[in-house]
């Protein structure tokens, strides 16, 4: 008997083969064997212009951003060096001169 892979989304063992796809009856996910390797890849983070961001890139803030809990504002045009990509809503972890460690959303920066 052929051993079928578990579902990559919900890890269910009740998968079945349908044509050239594998199907999970529990969550309804359909995939090919090629997709299993794609799911291991890192999430792609893009800036406001659609450029792909990587760890260590330098970016510029494109909008005035209020710093939560303070009266400080990160001004438009502020340059941020050596960003680090993280998972979550705020997907950039960085240090901004004069503000310290901060998390930013990629939609409010552009790559230099």
UniProtKB/TrEMBL annotation:
Pfam families per record: YjdM, Zn_Ribbon_YjdM
Domain Protein YjdM N-terminal: 3-32
InterPro entries membership: YjdM (IPR004624), YjdM_C (IPR013988), YjdM_N (IPR013987)
SUPFAM superfamilies reported for this sequence: Prokaryotic SH3-related domain (SSF82057), Zinc beta-ribbon (SSF57783)
Protein YjdM C-terminal domain segment(s): 45-111
Family label: Belongs to the YjdM family.
Protein name in UniProt: Alkylphosphonate utilization protein
């Amino acid at each position: 008997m052929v051993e079928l892979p578990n579902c990559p989304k919900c890890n269910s063992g009740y998968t079945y083969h349908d044509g050239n796809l594998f199907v999970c009856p529990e969550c309804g996910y359909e995939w090919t064997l090629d997709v299993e390797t794609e799911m291991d890849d890192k999430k792609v983070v893009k800036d406001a212009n659609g450029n792909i961001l990587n760890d260590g890139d330098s970016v510029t803030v494109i909008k005035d951003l209020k710093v939560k809990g303070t009266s400080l504002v990160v001004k438009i045009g502020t340059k941020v060096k050596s960003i680090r990509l993280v998972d979550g809503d705020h997907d950039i972890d960085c240090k901004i001169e004069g503000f310290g460690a901060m998390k930013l959303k990629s939609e409010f920066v552009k790559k230099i």
